[in-house]
Amino acid sequence: MRILKEGAAERVGEVSARDLELINELSKKELTAAEVFTFSLILCDNEIDRDFERFEVSALEELAALFAGRTGISDHDWSSARQVARIYRTELVRMPEKTTAAGEEYVCLKAWAYMLRVPENETLIAEIEGGIKKETSVGVSVSESVCSICGKETGSCGHVKGQEYGGRLCHAVLRGARDAYEWSFVAVPAQRNAGVTKAFCGAGGLGGFVESEAGRSFAGEFAQLKALADVGRGYLGWLRDEVKRLCLICQRDMYGALSGAAESMGAQELEEMRAALEKRVSEKLPFRTQLPGLNEVTDFDGGECTEYLI
User: Fold this and answer.
1) Are 179 and 250 contained in the same domain?
2) Which of 200, 238, 260, 293 is exposed most, by the fewest CB atoms within 10 A?
3) Are residues 67 and 166 in the same domain?
4) Structural domains in the chain (count)
5) Per-residue confidence at 227, pLDDT binned at 50, 70, 90?
6) What are the backbone dihedrals phi and psi of residue 24, each rounded to the nearest 5 degrees, phi first?
7) Where in the sequence is the domain holding 237, given as residue range(s)?
8) What are the tens digits of pLDDT across the range 53-76?
């Protein structure tokens, strides 16, 4: 699963002896401090982004190792002519005073990159120093994307990213970093913290994509899928209400726990729960007829109503 996430070039600093040592491990010739330009950038973090996804901290730790030595390009153009910088150091930065929307300690992956001070790079260096070239995007691969509500693979359950279940925001958790392809300077506004919009979706998720020139041809299909999704959400709401109603009938003492659990259940789990509760209701409150069947005679002992209204 390939993921594109945006970040931002940060501050420009002096080239330390340690920086130069790390840079020269990557270069073919011995470079001096006067020959290189360095800057830092935030690659990605564990905050829930605008596509309702977030990296697990363990995935950020894996990406820290994978991004060391990775090249920086422009607009994700995989051409050697577009290579402009290279990462020489990465670090996982933890901010205990800052909490993510998922209630976790905020953690971001920070990197330091270098460029050569050659005439071809003078304009780009000036733009970075002037804050014009600031936005970046990373291309990575992860092995797993799971639902934050139920832990199942994203798309295999009935939970919808961006919806709330029992007060919890549903989002995808990205795990198991497999590769870090590159990082790129892009012409997309920086998002909160480390940047959170995937390049293939544009600035407004799928909705923003279908409104763009590139995605306009998918607008009809998107509208149909959105209508079906609305129907599905309505059905899930009805299923949850049914489970709660049946629980009140046959297992009132379990209502509090079960109603809370129902909020995090997918369609299949709710169907199974509804079937089990319906069976219990039929056992607890069996259906009784008032009138006898064909050719049957009912004797009354005075304990039951003997009048029928037709």
Assistant:
1) no
2) 293
3) yes
4) 2
5) confident
6) -70, -15
7) 218-284
8) 999 999 999 999 999 888 887 655
